[in-house]
Structures are given as C-alpha cells and as structure tokens.
Predict the structure.
Amino acid sequence: MVNVDLLKEMCELPAVSGYEKEMQDILKDHFQPLADDCRRDELGNFIARKKGKDCGISIMIAAHMDEIGLMVKKIDEDGFLRISAVGGIDPRTLPGQRVCVHGRDKLEGVIGAMPPHLLDKKQRNKAHKLKNLYVDTGYDREEIEKLVSVGDIISIRRDLKELENEYVSGKALDDRAGILLMYECAKELADYNHRAEVSFVATSQEEVGVKGGITSAYNLDPQIGIAIDVTHGLMPGVDKNKAVEMEKGPVISFGPHVHPDLFELMKKTADDRSIPCQIQPTPSPYGTDAAGIQVARSGVATALLSIPQRYMHTSVEMLSLKNIKEGAILLARVINNVDDEFVEGLTCF
C-alpha cells in the first residue's frame, strides 16, 4: 500500500503555481531519508538526488508540485474579492467552493455567484463566467483592505477523501499523485544496486508553462528524463479514444516527445515483470513536463508515465492508488535496467 497519509498531507497544502514553499518543506522531510542530498533551486524546484554505482549515467524523474488557483484582481466597494485564474481553471467548477485567501493572514472564504432564483430564464441556463464570480470572506471593504491586497493568491480548500476500492478524491491530485509515485519509486530503489544517478524533481510552475521542468532539466543535464503526470480516465460521456481505463494500470505514452528506445524499455520491463500497464498515443507533446525536459540544452531522451484520473482540474479529482504503486514498481525497474550500453544507444542510428 502506498503512503496515503503523505498524499493527504500534500493535497491539502496550498501550492498554487509560483507559491510552492510549503510543499518544498514537506518533501524535504520525506525524501531526505531516501536520498543522498536534497536541495531547492532558484525557481523553486525541489531536487532529491540518489547516487548510483556508475556516476556517468544521469536520470531525471519529474512530477510537478504546483496546482491551479486564483488571484485577487480587485476589491469591490462592498468588500467582495474579484478574481482571476492562475493556470487552467474551469469557472463552471468554482461556485460554492471553499477557499483560502493568502493575504497578510490566511482568510477563509467562499466563492459566490448570483443564485438561480435571481437570474432571468435566459441567464439561468448559462454557466458562470469568471468575471462574474467573487470571493466572500464576510468582511466589508474597510476591514478586508487591511488584510488583503490585489495580487494575493487564493487556493481551493478541499480535504482528501478515501473512497471504496482504493480510490481517493480531492484537489491537486494533478500532480501530487505523481510526486507520491516518485516517493514510492525512491523507496523501491533502496533494494536495488542501480547504476544511474537519479534526481527526483518536484517541479514548480508546470501549470503556467512547464517552467520548472525546463529549468531543472537544463540545470541537471540528464541523459534520460521521465515525466510523471496524470491523464484522463474513462467516465460517463467520454469517448474511449480520448481516455484510458481506470483499472488497467499506469499509462506509458508514445509520441513526438517520447524517445522510442525509452518507450520500448518501459513496455518490455512491464511485460517481463507482469506489471499491468496501458499504452496511450499522445500526438501533442504539450501539457506535461515532458515537453520542457525534452528540449533542454541539446535535447534529452524523454518518456512520459501517467496515472489515470477522472475530473481533472476540479477539487474532486479521483484516481486509484493501485496505479501509483504499480507505476512506482515499473519506474524503479526501468531505472535499474538502464546501463551504459542503453544510454550509448540513445544517440545511435
């Protein structure tokens, strides 16, 4: 069983893109016993390095620690906070959410909107737009201006809940689930005498342009980079060609951002070890840290391992813990299978 307590701790922390400090502190506490050293770089990426017996091979494993959120755009004359998005927020999911406003103090609030009783028939059937939503803290303007400024960050409040059949639901599973997979992989590697030096990177600001993935890959200059993220799981109304099964294991992607030799290594390792997995074509390289890692310096041989998830970018994201465990086992065995011959072959034709 994976460390659900760690996942709960991470998911319930606020870490809106660019404001990931609390996450960095938690990760240091948990990764330090499994790594040779831990550090934070200039952009706020957290890096835990585990040495291998062959210091000439370097692998970067990356999962982003930031989450989507909001920012105070304006304070109305009645004290209501008008908001703008940080990352890919869907305004349809916001009305009625509990939030925390990170001003001079942390303030509880709720996202309000005009109730349907007061809307005319034409408006009643339309989704709310972000410009029409606001945060209500209970303070009037004079009081709120002492505590909150334009530009302050707002995070969604939601507890992680354990459901049946090893499922969990909560906010920011995209991509705290990926960080948990990295952590479980680091635990698995304690039993291996792997050749490669492995840097586990919790990247910052993925939701606003994969910035941490780009800078950390440039800094570490690995021969191999593997991004860990989430992908859409099947749910009612979703085309089977656009999503994956929730119960059939983690997902190995292929496409222009994935080195074919790495794809084959991951697939063969899963087959040889009878680890359940799924294969997913991803024609576009964008949407994960893989896109940033691949183009660092003169290029990095990159792969993408994903966790099936429902309700992405909402506060009730849902996934199976079994896929995290299986993904961690697969990733550890892939790392253990990387040797000098494999790395040399990455640039051969």
Q: What stands out?
A: Residues 173-189 form the longest helix (17 residues). The chain is about 25% helix and 25% strand. The chain has a mean pLDDT of 94. Residues 69-156 form a domain with the Elongation Factor Tu (Ef-tu); domain 3 fold (CATH 2.40.30.40).
